[in-house]
Design brief:
single chain, alpha/beta, six-stranded mixed beta sheet, five-stranded parallel beta sheet, about 40% helix
Amino acid sequence: MAGYGFQMIFLIMGFLFILAMLLGRREKPQKTKASEYDVRHAEKEVCRLEKLRSIHLNMPLAEKTRPKDFSEMVGQEEGIMALEAALCGPNPQHVIVYGPPGVGKTAAARLALERAKQSSGTPFQGDAKMIEVDGATSRFDERGIADPLLGSVHDPIYQGAGSYGQAGIPQPKEGAVSKAHGGLLFIDEIGELHPIQLNKLLKVLEDRKVMLESSYYQPENPQFPKHIHDIFQNGLPADFRLIAATTRSPDDLPPALRSRCLEVFFRSLRPDELHKIAGASALKAGFVLGAEEAGQVAEYAANGREVVNMVQLAAGIAQRAGRLRIERKDLDWVINQGRYCPHPPQRMPLQAKVGVVMGLGIGPGGEGSLLELEALAVPGQGGRVLTGLVDEEELGGNGRKIRRRSMAMSSVDNVVTVLKSHCHLEVDRFDFHLNFPGGIPVDGPSAGITMAAALFSAIKKCPIDNETAMTGEISILGRVLPVGGVSAKIGAAVRAGAKRVIIPKDNWQKAMGIWALIFCRYQFR
């Protein structure tokens, strides 16, 4: 009986084994069917993507007009020269490019790497890339879950961690700083980055690597792959050069960032440069734009991007009318529809007038500008009515702000004191009215000598030379102090038709003398 029982047990075990084998064979075709479905689905998605990529609209005019070389860029000669000096050499530097929108900052950054790779002694290799990041839209998570700029760690608890996640292994993910290793990292609108990102970026610029952290990393665990240990212990390489663009003022950026970068300024485009862009844009769009119509575009557009947009819209109107020539009526419609305001060119006055003096300042785009100042002295009790000046200004930051009387208002007090004590004028017999036509709020001390000349002219009833422009701060002791932006101011005076420019002695440079000599010899002989 015992032997019979053992036989039954062996028979049952054999039957179960054969049944398991049969069931296993049945499952294999099901897995194959699922696998075949996945392959067919993947092939279908690939075909769909290829079909989508085969569909193309016409290339936008903005892309057609994008410069392919520095020689195709209009204006910004000094900015491009500074950018080349910073990057195209054996020791390239980090750069911050300031300037108003639509003046070529992004286009210049895209061309910088190719020019740098062609320079002698450059450390950039032939396959070096430029990675672009938009600071205004860069997604950032304070918990460190996702950071496309600096990189992050995909911990095992997150969905989609894969086989490494099932094994409890954290997975480092490269950010833009690592992808730009050996090349350029371009951050547009860097001033919009989160302060935490900016501070981490400073550390990366200093160490030329990015360190990642994870509470799941175990240095003593031998089951972790070698490259995971290497990344957490030594960091990801991030040896790149930064080109950061911003439309903000330099004072709005952290001093620590500015101290690590060279600063390059891209100025506003001038009317003659906007005129060239308008003509070239119309030509690349396949339309004809006359010189008069191009001048009309330059008069209303504030930057190169607006020029391209105006030309493209006017070209669409001309095309609907069956014309290849953009006419003035097309541009008139675009200007009225877009609510554009004219920007007439600045010109020196045709004749000298009492109390009218041409000063020099710096406009919002960093370009020099001509400022007309009107002064009127009327009998009174020594009161002053000041218009066109900023009354108060706010200083400070980080939660501590100070409001004080503006420097322009203080300059008026200095000027009146100087006229009274040094020029011995009876200023107490008059009320003074100062005005900058156009409603431009003027702040800063650089209009000091302009105010002094205008008030002197108004009191003495003597006109000031209408071919002379001036800038400079005046102290309470009558000294003329240096001011900033003198080169840009002189350029504005030259373009406005000034024959003489008065600047502080401390601002004088030998290059200005050579420029003035050449200008006078060939422009006014």
